[in-house]
Specification:
Blueprint lengths: L1 H16 L5 H8 L2 E8 L5 E8 L9 E7 L10 H9 L3 E5 L16 H17 L2 E11 L1 H12 L3 E7 L5 H5 L7 H14 L4 H11 L6 H10 L6 H7 L2 E7 L7 H10 L4 E6 L8 H4 L5 H15 L11 E3 L8 E3 L2 H4 L2 E6 L4 E4 L13 H9 L4 E3 L9 E4 L7 E5 L2 E8 L4 E10 L4 E12 L8 E6 L3 E5 L4 E7 L14 E5 L7 E6 L3
Parallel strand pairs: 3-4, 3-5, 5-6, 6-7, 7-8, 8-9
Antiparallel strand pairs: 1-2, 2-4, 9-10, 11-23, 12-22, 13-18, 14-21, 15-20, 16-19, 16-22, 16-23, 17-18, 17-21
Helix pairs in contact: 2-3, 4-5, 5-10
């Protein structure tokens, strides 16, 4: 089955690159060479790889090298279209299948220490077997490849530049944000791992504990995730001075943008942050098929500046570059704090009471599909706010924005919750509501609590997922809270209830970041 799937995925990627020019034909025309090799990774594990070298690379000169670990579940030809473009402009490119996937040996380590050691072994191999320049080494990747690239940069000071696309900086904050299991994301990753690779006992245990909500194993699971989180090693990256470019989509349902923005703020060396509409890896996919793509264009410019030394101006541009989920073009900011420098506060004065155990109809959509649709057609998940069943949904609305509003950054909910059970889950949604009451999803996030005293209120602070959304003139914003969403595992006992209040000593509110006009 794995071999058949490999052929199908490979055929799709090769067919995509053929929309421009097939890799083989392109290599013959441009003089670049493509060869498939085996590289000995950590402990001698065989990593399947391909190498693309520039035309005229006869061994007399040295070229900057870019190493590309593959995405979770994709074969080694994933980056072939981008590899040949890099080779055309004078790079040696080595792409390899991470251990445990497809025909590479070993078991899936989920960006563990052996994966990081593999990256170093691949660099060693490139320096020994290609005309790669040891002073000009870069790494890049999408998703899994992005995470491995950042972790490798923390351990290997030879890596001078990284382009980490649709990846993670904090694995726990990605799939366990708000102390809530991201069910569809974990199931998708786990399923893809079993279908295209060989999960080891460690990963199998972590998945089992995660999906079964085993709180006795929570600390162990968090420690496992922290070890695989570049944010815990940011001091090492800063000490190395690595130039880091981060790119992600506003609606990434596997690695939400908040954790990238927080990581970006901690970086001290050359850095760049780009957010665009879409879901996980959808902002990069056309580039993988050999088509024009803004994200990959930025990555190439990043390497040209920090590996080749080309004065292309990328270091003089505003380093935070975002594209809103609308017809608007790119916006540049000096830093992430400047994106959300101005905030509107929606007071949540009226108390709301809801029952758990039912989905009110408000939800975050379907992993990968809903935000891809929003990217392509600007149609996010919608709901009729007036028709939401108030027994299962709490609703607060703002006044009308007569001139419209530009939401930019991370909305923050501060509220007081009184549960009838010791554990529970709620999900907060921010909607753009039109004159007919139809709400379009702007952002959302889940929140789970444990070990609370039933009947005793507690304070809850929740960051919704960062976004850039233009509210049309005459529309309102609405905050909706319910207790179930198919994207997440919920922890509400049967018959449990939640009350949201706003004590005079500590008023509840939703803080909405707005662009200053």
């Amino acid at each position: 089955m794995r071999t058949s799937l490999a052929l199908a995925v490979s055929a799709a990627l090769v067919a995509g690159t053929a929309l421009v020019l097939s890799p083989a034909a392109h290599a013959a025309e441009s003089g670049t060479s493509v060869r498939f090799v085996d590289i000995a990774g950590d402990g001698g594990t065989v990593l399947k790889a391909n190498v693309v070298t520039p035309a005229g690379a006869d061994g007399s000169g040295r070229y900057p090298v870019v190493v590309l670990p593959t995405s979770w579940g994709l074969p080694q030809i994933e980056y072939l279209a981008q590899a040949r473009r890099l080779a055309d402009s004078g790079y040696v490119v080595v792409s390899y299948n991470a251990r445990g996937f497809w025909e590479s040996g070993g078991e899936i380590e989920t960006a563990g220490p052996r994966d990081v050691a593999d990256a170093t072994r691949v660099i060693d191999w490139a320096l020994a077997h290609t005309p790669a320049d040891p002073a000009r080494i870069g790494m890049a990747g999408v998703s899994y490849g992005a995470g491995i690239s950042l972790l490798a940069a923390a351990q290997d000071s030879r890596i001078k530049a990284v382009a980490a696309l649709s990846g993670w900086a904090d694995l726990i904050d990605s799939i366990y944000s708000g102390r809530t299991q991201h069910l569809q994301a974990a199931a998708l990753l786990g399923g893809a791992g079993y279908l295209t690779g060989r999960p080891g006992p460690e990963l199998e245990k972590v998945l089992k504990d995660f999906l079964s909500s085993d709180l006795d194993q929570e600390d162990e699971m968090i420690a496992w995730g922290r070890q695989r989180s570049p944010v815990t090693q940011v001091d090492r990256i800063n000490a190395h001075g690595t130039a880091i470019m981060l790119g992600n989509a506003w609606g990434d349902t596997i690695f939400p943008p908040n954790q990238y923005a927080s990581f970006y703020e901690k970086l001290k060396g050359p850095k760049r942050l780009e957010f665009r509409p879409g879901d996980h890896a959808t902002a990069e996919v056309t580039g993988l098929l050999g088509l024009p793509n803004d994200t990959w264009t930025s990555a190439h410019r990043w390497f040209d500046r920090y590996l080749k030394g080309t004065d292309n101006g990328v270091d003089r541009e505003r380093p935070v570059r975002i594209k809103p989920r609308s017809d608007g073009g790119y916006e540049g900011y000096a830093d992430w704090a400047s994106v959300q420098a101005h905030r509107d506060r929606l007071a949540l004065n009226d108390p709301e009471h809801l029952w758990t155990g039912a989905d009110s109809g408000a939800n975050g959509g379907v992993v990968l599909l809903s935000n891809l649709l929003d990217q392509l057609t600007r149609t996010p998940p919608t709901v009729s706010v007036p028709l939401l069943p108030r027994a299962f949904a709490a609703v607060w609305q703002s006044g009308r924005y007569d001139s419209g509003a530009a939401v930019r950054g991370t909305p923050v909910l501060h509220t007081t919750v009184t549960p009838t059970a010791s554990s529970g889950t709620f999900v907060a949604y921010l909607y753009d509501v039109g004159p007919l009451g139809v709400g379009k999803l702007v952002s959302h996030a889940p929140y789970t609590f444990h070990d609370r005293t039933p009947g005793r209120p507690f304070t809850a602070d929740l960051e919704l997922f960062s976004t850039a959304y233009d509210v049309p003139a005459g529309h309102r914003l609405a905050l909706v809270v319910d207790a179930a969403d198919p994207l997440y595992i919920e922890h509400n006992p049967a018959g449990a209830q939640l009350t949201f209040s706003s004590p005079a000593s500590d008023p509840s509110y939703l803080s909405v970041p707005m662009r200053e006009e």
